Amino acid sequence: MKITTIAFSLMMISLTFTSQGQEIKPIEVKQIMEKVADWQIFNFRNTFTHEKFHHPLDWTNGALYVGMVKWAAMADSDKYYNWLKNIGREHDWKLYYRKYHADDHTVGQMYLDLYKKYGNQNMIEPTKKQFDFIMLHPAQTKMNWDALYCQDRWNWCDALFMSPPVWAKLYNITKEKKYLDFLMVEYKATTDFLFDEDENLYYRDENYIEKRDNGTKVFWARGNGWVFAGLVNILNELDSKSHEYKYFLNIYKRMAEKLLKIQTPEGHWAMSLLGQKYYPTPETSGSSFFIYGLAWGINNGVLDKAKYGKAVDKGWKAMVSHVTEDGMLGYVQGIGEAPGKAYADKTEVYGTGAFLSAGSEVYKLHGGL
């Protein structure tokens, strides 16, 4: 009996190492992305998530669409583009209801990406009109969390994923520098306010700057995932020789260096980035955004593959291991603002968006065209 138990244990260890050592194949990346995308579309209005069904223009779905557009560009069918276009048409290509709030700008990323493909002016006019209004009537509030109308500016780090890429895309499409100028002023203000120069990470908002969790500074994984993925989505729209590009690239590289150092042995990132010991549960939304950003850096020649490639591969394999047989991405932390809980049987639409974004770059990294 003892010999049999030992043999079984050795077999399981062998299988684990074999799995970890398996080469990532582009076709398999594409297959798992399709499974996850199809599951999410089928369950779009179901309550498999932590929360109730979100409005189609809510930031949660906006983040889903960011990844879904990337998947649509890879897919062998137009059904994903058609699904996204139907959402835009149903809502007259409008942003969500709050004029200044970054969360309600998120869906604009999808609209502008579809415009790039189809050239339909209706897809961008409402966003352009709203952003023109914001520039003519900029929010005057302070960045402090208790200031009146403080979230009319980007005073929480999540906002750096939600709104800035829309401004960058609008600049790229129109070539009107006013959009880029507005982006730079506001992004720098947020970075000056929330970026920790020693740790090269962002605090979620002012309330976390002085907080400590088991003696460590509190850097929320998904919050920094929002920032890191948002940086990539901005960099994709800018001239690589411009000083604006270099500004964002500097932040990106500093974050990438830090993320490499704090990845867990299992391949994910702890929900409190400096507190692995206290947050051992995997979390797939923040981790997927980090994988997306790191893989993009290798693919675009700004990160060394020899240095970062293993981290990307280990991370991707960890994310894939949390996809159910049906295609649901598990271990997505629910809506929040700080490290918390995640469960194998819980998901959220933004987690799917992050996973699809990650897959789009992992696919390229391993030879997918």
Automatic annotation (TrEMBL):
Pfam families: Glyco_hydro_88 (PF07470). GO terms for biological process: carbohydrate metabolic process. SUPFAM superfamilies: Six-hairpin glycosidases (SSF48208). Keywords: Hydrolase. InterPro entries: 6-hairpin_glycosidase_sf, 6hp_glycosidase-like_sf, Glyco_hydro_88, PolySaccharide_Degr_Enz. Signal peptide: none annotated. One of its GO terms (molecular function) is hydrolase activity. PANTHER family: UNSATURATED RHAMNOGALACTURONAN HYDROLASE (EUROFUNG). This is Glycoside hydrolase family 88 protein. It comes from Wocania arenilitoris.
